Amino acid sequence: MNFHADHQMLRIAGGVFAGLLVASIAGSILKRTVKSEHGQATVDNMNARVRSWWIMIVIFAFSFMVGPGGSMVLFALISLLALREYVSLIGSVRADHRTLFWSFFVFTPIQYWFWYTGWYGLAVILIPVYAFLFVPTRLVFAHDTTGFLDRAARIHWGLMVCVYCISYAPALLTLNIEGYPKQDAKLLLFLVIVVQMSDVLQYIWGKLLGKRKIAPAISPNKTWEGFLGGVASACALGTGLWWMTPFTPLQALGMSLAITLMGFAGGLTMSAIKRDRGVKDFGEMIEGHGGILDRMDSICFSAPLFFHLTRWFFVAPHPVIKW
Amino acid sequence: MSSQFLARLIAASARLLAGPTVRWIGLQPGRRQRVYFANHTSHLDFVVLWSVLPHEMRRRTRPVAAQDYWSTGLRRRIAVGVFHAVLVERGAKSAPQSSGSTGHLDAARRTLEQLVEALDKRYSLIIFPEGTRGSGEGVAAFKSGIYYLWRQRPDVEFIPVHLSNLNRILPKGEILPVPVISHVVFGPPLQPEANESKESFLAKAHRALEELGRS
After folding, report:
1. Would you list which residues of chain B are within 8 Å, Cβ to Cβ, of chain A?
2. B109-141 burial string, b = 16+ CB within 10 Å, else e?
3. Alpha helix (H) ranges present in chain B?
4. Which of B165, B174, B176 shows the shortest C-beta gap to A88?
């Protein structure tokens, strides 16, 4: 890394730090000024979220400093914890036990190992192809046909969302973009900042102006005002961060739009699952936020698309075998 | 490696694997001497229950475990050295007078003596009054040992603890775990009448545990 890159990194870190500091100060002021019981509950939840953000940022920053391996390990752990929340909520029967063991302790580590070694060809098909064929095959050997297709589909879907999709986030470190240092954490940071700020901004716009519900049957708290305000301001933020990416400002805007829309789709999809299972959150691991999967739902959907868009448009084509 | 360090390590690993959510309903974790009684569905049960207690309480809490399973080699070293388990003869936790054979009766009496002795040394205990591991659906009928223990030391708090999902992590007959999230719910202490009959005490205790499972 040259000095220029380090300088950019400091700006990003400084920006994140300043943003959190403002949120913490605003939270403590609101805590003293808001009187109504409902308002107090909202402020308490907001402050809990900010406290959790501090912890998440520290963990995230620490894994970055370790290097690409650190980010891979961090996201592999996030995948395991997300898969745990998913399986706990979705349910499993006795006959699923060993297939689930494979999912947690074989497919998940191998998926991240392939990305770490830069084996793109296998990393993108391991779960869609090999796990897809393996899961029902292993289930057959458990000799229980009750709800067979349902059980196989649930396990495969969990692997796809919690492992495959999430693994695309650190996979950004493996992209070889011309004129842009490889294994640079900034592309990953760009994704995480835009997607998470989109969530935060949608929450804030929704709290401030939210009136018209956007999907009352799925997520009663999401409103058109929150959605439009959040997406617009997150896209503005993403465009303003073009200097940390290989994109021009206009390209950064397009990418931000893709990221935020997919993130919104991910949030709604996961809400639909939670609603079907009759719960509000996937877990209670992160104070104020719920579970890991509640925090990762938007990344699950946006990371794969962001990865492939970037790869398609910005990575120099691989040499083709000439006959 | 000191047993204190090993104990903390095992407790941390158990919490990592089982990811337990912990709720204390109607009581606080505290220094009071208690008998925790829980439903039994997995070998992980007592380790996880023990691991979610605050460290200071954990040092003062001994699980009651079957001697035949825990009495050999490494298992014994862990059971005695780390968990400080009270090892008792299996099948002996039922009523002293309910069985015809005198051998059984002696075993039951010895078990009761062991438990009372541990209580008199100010230890808390973890017991599984169903006697054996169940399928995870519902709570099986209690053996009567818990009643005789209460009769001997009525001042000790008897705390129902409902464990769920541990049978999904490590079901009977499996050696490899699947780390789903488990739940540990501590309930308010039983409040038996001073002269509560055996049947009614056992029914009360059983109901308390079942209700926790629904909460």
Report:
1. 19, 21, 165, 168, 171, 174, 176-181
2. eebbebbeebbeeebbbbbbbbbebbebeebbe
3. 3-18, 45-51, 55-59, 67-70, 73-76, 102-120, 145-152, 166-169, 198-214
4. B165
Say how far apart CA A27 and CA A210 lie, in whole Å.
20
Both structure tokens of A171:
């996979």
Token reading at B204? 């009360």
CA distance B159 to chain A (A): 25
Instruction: Nearest chain B residue to A87 by CA: give it.
Output: B180
Helical spans, DSSP H, in chain A: 3-33, 37-66, 68-90, 97-102, 108-116, 120-123, 132-140, 148-158, 166-171, 186-209, 224-240, 249-277, 292-314
Contact B201, B192 (CB under 8 A): yes
How many Å lie between the alpha carbon of A105 and the closest alpha carbon of chain B? 9
Given a contact cutoff of 8 angstroms between Cβ atoms, the answer to whether B108 and B99 are in contact is yes
- Provide φ and ψ at B33, rounded to 5°: -75, 130
How far apart, in whole angstroms, are the C-alpha atoms of residue B62 and residue B52?
Answer: 14
Quick count: other Cβ atoms within 10 Å of Cβ A74?
Answer: 19
The interface pTM score, or ipTM, of the predicted complex is 0.83
Residue type, A190: F
Provide block-wise average pLDDT over 10 residues at a time, chain A (323 residues). 64 91 92 86 88 90 86 95 95 94 98 95 97 98 95 97 97 86 80 94 92 90 94 97 94 97 96 91 83 93 96 74 55
DSSP readout, B148-205?
A: HHHHH-TTSEEEEEEEESHHHHS-TT--S------EEEE-PPP---TT--HHHHHHHH
Structure token digits, residue A126: 């391991």
Inter-chain contact B21–A85, Cβ cutoff 8 Å? no
For chain B, give the number of residues: 215
Model confidence at B24, pLDDT cuts 50, 70, 90, reads very high
Record: contact B179-A97, CB cut-off 8 A = no
Across the interface, of B21, B174, B179, the residue whose CB is closest to A84 is B179
B91 has a pLDDT exceeding 70: no
In angstroms, the CA B34 to CA A51 distance is 35
Residue A108 to residue A98: CA distance in whole angstroms: 14
**In A, which residues are within 8 Å of B171 by CB distance?**
94, 97
How far does the CA of residue B169 sit from the closest CA of chain A (Å)? Answer: 8
What's the pLDDT at B102?
61
Q: At what angle do helices A37-66 and A3-33 cross, to 10 degrees?
A: 160
Query: Whole-model pTM?
Result: 0.89
Q: Which residues from B are below 8 Å from A92, CB to CB?
A: 168, 178, 180
Q: How far is A101 from chain B (nearest CA, A)?
A: 5
Asked if A104 and A80 count as a contact pair (C-beta separation under 8 A), the reply is yes
